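User: Can you predict the 3D structure of GNAT family N-acetyltransferase? Sequence below.
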Amino acid sequence: MIIRPYEPGDTDALYDICLRTGDNGDDATGQFADPRLLGEIFVGPYLRYEPELAFVIDDGAPAGYVLGAPAGYVLGARDTVEFERVCEREWWPPLREKYPPGSFPAGTRDAHYVRLLHESRTVDPAVVAEYPAHLHIDLLPRAQGHGMGRALMKRLLAALREAGAPGVHLGVGAANTRAIAFYERMGFRTLRQSPGGRTMGRPTTRNLSAPGP
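Assistant: Sure. Here are the predicted structure tokens for GNAT family N-acetyltransferase:
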């Protein structure tokens, strides 16, 4: 397995990975009527506006997969506040037209994310003051347990550092205990916590081998 920059031909595969890790790291394929909805929210805008901060795991040709099939990704935004402004101006309006309220039956996961799509996104000023960048990372099971998550994180942290971002944050669901443990091993600390999840952050300037704060 190798880490390489995102290429435009990876887009559909990354949308699929987002769906297949969309249930707190487990496969959410059977939980959505529209298989692209999660990707439109959590993958598409990063590929459009900050493709230089998108990296994928390329595992060649394992059994049952085509050559060079992505097995995971990390996506980043250098300046969360500016990223949100651009998305609010350019990315969300067409999606809100495509997915108006009531597009899916109440109580479904599709309906939940459509509701989120129509809400204004405002990041906590106290978080972005110290950790202005943010990221999303997802790995399929076949890429887990080989150190690739750490390699992805290292690649993105270096890119964010070069882009001038002193710190990065992320959000994780409370039920995703595997991800929380992974982020803690990567030096992230909890900044905000609620019954549904937590916001975690770390400086981009600290070496990954250094202990967390």
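The longest strand covers residues 70-77. The helical segments are 11-20, 37-42, 44-49, 80-98, 109-117, 125-130, 148-162, 177-185.
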